[in-house]
Amino acid sequence: MNFTGPSHEITDGDFIYDEEKAMNEMFRYITEETTIEAILEESKYLVVFPFDPTSITKEDITDLEKYFAERDEFEKCIILRDYKK
């Protein structure tokens, strides 16, 4: 699969999806530790978010809670639960 942009062709090899990093970045964004702009600037690769960061729903936050619960990161789950209120 190839995508063509104004000055760069993006191929499948440019997509490096790291679920753990993506989920942690979304946690940092939701908890206002960082901005989307900062995440994009810091990344060496094309950034793939686990959900639309411009329209976060309670379901998205619940998905993050489940992700962190499966990894026994319960402090993050509590913080996310409070953000849903």
Listing every helix as H and every strand as E from the N terminus to the C terminus, the arrangement reads EEHHHH
- Quantity of strands, as a count: 2
Structural category: mainly alpha
Query: Can you summarize the main beta sheet?
Result: 2 strands, antiparallel
- CA-CA gap between termini: 41 Å
Sheet with the most strands: spatial strand order: 1-2
Beta-strand percent range: 5-15%
Mean of residue pLDDT values: 82
Overall helicity? 40-55%
Low-confidence stretches: 1-8
Number of separate structural domains: 1
What shape does the CA trace take?
A: globular
Q: Roughly how many Å is the radius of gyration?
A: 15 Å
Q: How many helices in DSSP terms?
A: 4
Give an account of the 3D structure.
There is one protein chain. This protein has one domain (2-84). Helix content is 51%, strand content 7%. The chain is built from four helices and two strands; from the N terminus they run E-E-H-H-H-H. The protein has helices at 19-30, 36-42, 58-70, 74-84, and strands at 2-4, 9-11. Strands 1-2 form a two-stranded antiparallel ribbon. Helix 3 runs antiparallel to helix 4. The protein is globular, with a radius of gyration of 15 Å.
Keywords:
single chain, 85 residues, mainly alpha, two-stranded antiparallel ribbon, 4 helices, 2 strands, globular, disordered N terminus
Q: How is the topology of this model organized?
A:
Blueprint (H helix, E strand, L loop, with lengths): L1 E3 L4 E3 L7 H12 L5 H7 L15 H13 L3 H11 L1
Antiparallel strand pairs: 1-2
Helix pairs in contact: 3-4
